[in-house]
Amino acid sequence: MSLIDIKVEFLGGLDSIFANKRSYEVKVDNTKIVTLKDLIFDVIVKDLLVNPEDNYSIYIQDETIRPGILTLINDADWELEDELDYLLQHKDVISFTSTLHGG
Amino acid sequence: MSDSLTNEEFSRYGRQMIVQGISNNRDPIEHQLLLKNSKICVIGAGGLAAPCLSYLAGAGVGEIGIIDDDVVETSNLHRQIIHSTSKKGELKCDSAKKFINDLNPHVQVNTHPVRLTNDNAFEIFAPYDVILDCTDTPMTRYLASDVAVLLGKTLVSASGVNTEGQLTILNFENIGPCYRCFHPKPPPPNTVSSCSMNGVIGACIGLVGIMQAVETLKVLQKVYTKDNFEPFMLQYSGYMDQSLRRFRMRKRRHDCVSCGDSPEITREKIESYEINYLSFCGSRDYDVVDSMERITPVEFKEKYWSAPAKECVVIDVRPQAHYKISNFKTDTVTNIPLATLTSMKGDIGKLKEVVPEINEDSNVVVFCRYGNDSRLATRELKDKFGIQNTKDVIGGFFAYIDQVDPSIPKY
């Protein structure tokens, strides 16, 4: 066991499928939850997503975050890191934001 | 090209010209002339553009084009503060022009009372230096980005809905990432929210519009340069605690079909509609009921509403906030938002928990705001719950108000 703290945020209205809560502090075992992919599929989808049978497709598509949602690792676009393969670290802030279109 | 300012302009712009430390050591007069000699084009004259245009016009941008084919409506005025109650029914671009010229007669305003399309975008954008995206659909955002890339123009792009907003600079000096770099695949149509459906706080979208003006000033006055520009996205949240986050974003994608190393998108393909933004972005298919499954608001009133003997279950599938704002004020209507209905997955037992008298033989009438969601609900009730006598009200609650009872408030 090696527990690390991760902050997970849902912005741009995405909190509506996460119990209307924009920010979560999670403690994960870093020997099992190693990558961002592990965090998304083994923690966020399992423990935080509300009504997964209805809401899974609003969050996940084709085994990754669905188009229209940007993923940020410590305020940087996940493309600048290793996307799903990013290795989680203690005190990381992982943010998901739905792209807005209104004007 | 103007190389001097009049005395009136010195007085008008003096307060911003004396601000130190933002001009990259440029002479203050030269810094102001950069604005005077610049031409910008704003797509959309709504909630973002209203404050954005005001400040850019006030600051002395020389020429402003405004693309918008909508007219001013009462429901715009809580946020689109460049318009006014007396301008109701006027084209938004005309109303905006009057406001701007009243604020600053030095600004040349060009109105484009059209919708931005594949065949007019190049011609409209061509004379301008910088394009401001203040539109409201992914479709127009992709089109504006593609055209800006092909014409080599910087795009300052903002958006917002509800209490949040986003802001970014795309295709900066033709080196920065474009909209497709950020979003190679469009979002599924059912995940796209709008101000009309999901609501918007005027001050929140307005603040994003003002931030868009600040970014535009930095582009026009060459505060951003190819050397110092880093791709970013600002994320504003209005509630509960106001916050502004700056996300560091990806650079141009080498494999981007628009601005990458071997682009596939060309002017010819756009203008010939070979690139079809509507089919690329898709749209939600509401055409799921036939005419036999629909009734007009007048039929609804005569056959169902005014005939209590003919026992009928009326379901309003609008979101709860919509329902609470305006409804028939009677307990014979039940509000079950479409999302709630769908989540019941055809289990009539769950439906009975909300509407105890309902069963497979009930006469059911469904309506929503405009008659779109109610069609999806009708399909759901007939096919999943097995309630065959379900009817959809054409045009929804608002059509009922227009055709039958104008005393009910529309929102």
What's the SSE blueprint?
The complex is a heterodimer of chains A (103) and B (411).
Chain A: E1 3-11, E2 23-29, H1 36-48, H2 52-59, E3 60-61, E4 64-65, E5 69-73, E6 76-77, E7 92-98
Parallel strand pairs in A: 1-7
Antiparallel strand pairs in A: 1-2, 3-4, 5-6, 5-7
Chain B: H1 7-17, H2 28-36, E1 39-43, H3 49-59, E2 63-67, H4 92-103, E3 108-112, H5 121-125, E4 130-133, H6 138-151, E5 154-161, E6 164-170, H7 179-182, H8 195-198, H9 202-220, E7 232-237, E8 243-248, H10 267-271, H11 277-281, E9 294-295, H12 297-305, E10 313-316, H13 320-325, E11 333-335, H14 338-343, H15 348-354, E12 364-367, H16 373-383, E13 390-393, H17 396-403
Parallel strand pairs in B: 1-2, 1-4, 2-3, 4-5, 9-13, 10-11, 10-12, 12-13
Antiparallel strand pairs in B: 5-6, 6-7, 7-8
Q: How do the helices and strands follow one another from N- to C-terminus of chain A?
A: EEHHEEEEE
Global structural class of chain B: alpha/beta
The succession of helices and strands of chain B, N to C, reads HHEHEHEHEHEEHHHEEHHEHEHEHHEHEH
| Second CATH tier, the architecture of chain A | Roll
**What's the Cα radius of gyration of chain B?**
25 Å
Number of strands of chain B: 13
Q: Would you report the number of β strands of chain A?
A: 7
Determine and state the CATH class of chain A: Alpha Beta
Overall number of domains of chain A: 1
CATH H level of chain A: which superfamily?
Beta-grasp domain
Q: Please tell me the overall pLDDT of chain A.
A: 96
CATH topology of the largest domain in chain B: Rossmann fold
Largest sheet of chain A: 5 strands, mixed
